[in-house]
Structure prediction request, 258 residues.
Amino acid sequence: MRVLVLGGTAEARALAVALQGRGVDFVSSLAGRVTRPRMPVGQVRIGGFGGVDGLADTLREGGFTHLIDATHPFATTMTAHAVAAASLAGVPALRLARPGWAGRTDADTWTWVPDLDAARVAAESLGSRPFLSSGRQTLPHFAGWIDRDVLVRVVEPLDGEVPPRWTVVLDRGPYCLDRELDLLRGHRIDVLVTKDSGGAYTSAKLDAAAELGVAVVVVARPPAPRDLVTIDDVAGCLSWLAATGGIGDEPRRPEPPR
Ligand code: NAP
Prediction:
């Protein structure tokens, strides 16, 4: 068995730890977007594959027997490529995706929207001091907000200019409630814009918004790919590998000293 893990998420790093603990031969793949990425344990390759054909070639030439797409729930291109390339290479594939935030008790108090343009329209009607925490790639959708105080949080410095009234904060999760409360209070935020990324890494902003009565606009997840089984935790991935390739259910015990 040799597993290619498409990563860039906390779940992919947790999967790498679990695979290493079971002695599975695996390689994690990162897109290379972040200058100093959080690295998974084990072997890592960085950079795009060159589309579907490039990924299919990597699967064949690298001798991979399994593909696990553990990219972010909004990394839709990579997921679509994973489905197509796995089919071309004849390699079984699985999606690891953390549950979204729709199950939270406060989820029905938020404004759910289907896309970023709808998020902009909704946020304009709900507040005048937005906090954009939807990621660097989403910012062009809000570029018209030159007449308002906007707080943006991104991992990497932005390439281009931003409007003079925007404040850009560089930070990366995990975030805690106290600091999120300080941030929202400090910038007098009245509306939070986020994608339904899910998980605990970045959810403290939602707790802070609830505590302060800040409106929340959530971009719903893109539809799950039809041809790819999705599992929402690492244990499920291990069970799938056990069922399809025969890894043990328990972590490998360390060798006794000789
Ligand atoms: P995307 O739009 O779905 O993918 C665009 C292209 O980037 C892919 O076609 C592929 O290039 C390359 N790519 C993406 N993920 C890759 C990976 N793990 N390994 C190698 N190449 C990869 O992806 P994205 O939304 O920009 O996300 C890029 C990375 O950031 C992913 O690893 C994702 O897990 C992580 N991330 C994304 C978000 C988000 O909100 N989208 C949030 C947090 C982390 P080729 O076609 O050349 O193979």
